[in-house]
Amino acid sequence: MDIKHLQYFLEVVEFNSFSRAADHLYITQPTISKMIKNLELELEVTLFERSRKQLVLTDAGKIIYEQSKLIDQAFKNLGTELEQLSGLKKGHIRIGLPPIFDAQNFLKIIGYFHEKHPGITFQLVEHGSKKIEEAVENNELDVGVIVLPTKKNLFEYFSLLAEDLRLVLHTSHPFAKKEKVDLSDLVNESFILFNKDFVLNDRIILSCNAAGFNPTIISESTQQTNIVEMVANKLGVALLPESVCDKLHEDVSSVKIVNPTINWNLAVIWRKNQYLSLAAKEWLNFTRNQLETENNQGAHHE
């Protein structure tokens, strides 16, 4: 039995489709169908109930699916164990970042780490917090940056950044000259939000509800730059983190929001009880130490 057969079987189950699994693996559907057939012949079982329209695992298929996941994980761990032997000369770290996050300082830390360990490569994936949590939980990412709170039963984490959201609006808007604006004053405004993959979307809607109104949402986007451009073109207002508001479009202003203030806390998460590579562990320790050093320096300057 080839590990590839089991990995292809896992892909078919995950995608619930032979054709989608084949597309994802860049092979043809007949190839993947033949591999699954060979696996069934070798194990002398039927893996899928083929009489139904959708793919349904047989009882034997369910057992083999669970065991295949363990075998696949063990196979990946083997590669990681061998990586440990080479110290930190090589390795790969998969990190999820929210597009709303001003990652300049974060990327600077990755740059410092790269200077110390030039053989370690990085994959940066942009998603909203909800998708990042799912990907870390499913071991598609090693670590992720998300908006707290998170699932403490599933993830370990440390804080990265805490700040308030500010009202972002066109410079010609009557509120643009104000020092601060009550959230309830935005009852008649059109809001431009991130989409539902973003925890911030829920946070803003719930805060507006607490202030006594349901926000009128004119548009949703996954990109912070698009949201700012829409505000610059007088399509509506937005609520964005302070750090993002430092680098805004010239036609856009930002104002403090009060009653209530809306804050967000970013954290770096990784899966509890998940096998982490030496590279990922070292990067987590390095990042945490860098942040502590910066915070201590900031405290001394105040």
Describe the structure.
- By secondary structure, the protein is an alpha/beta fold.
- It has three domains: 3-85, Winged helix-like DNA-binding domain superfamily/Winged helix DNA-binding domain (Arc Repressor Mutant, subunit A), CATH 1.10.10; 91-160 and 265-301, Periplasmic binding protein-like II (D-Maltodextrin-Binding Protein, domain 2, 3-Layer(aba) Sandwich); 163-264, D-Maltodextrin-Binding Protein, domain 2 (3-Layer(aba) Sandwich), CATH 3.40.190.290.
- Helices cover 44% and strands 23% of the residues.
- It has ten helices and ten strands.
- It has helices spanning 3-15, 18-25, 29-43, 59-85, 104-116, 129-137, 199-210, 224-232, 242-245, 278-301; strands at 91-97, 120-126, 143-147, 155-170, 180-182, 190-194, 216-221, 238-241, 252-258, 263-271.
- Strands 1, 2, 3, 4, 5, 8, 9 and 10 form an eight-stranded mixed β-sheet that branches. Strands 6-7 form a two-stranded parallel sheet.
- β6 (190-194), α7 and β7 form a beta-alpha-beta unit.
- α1 (3-15) crosses α2 (18-25), α1 packs across α4 (59-85) and α2 (18-25) packs across α3.
- The chain is globular and about 75 Å long.
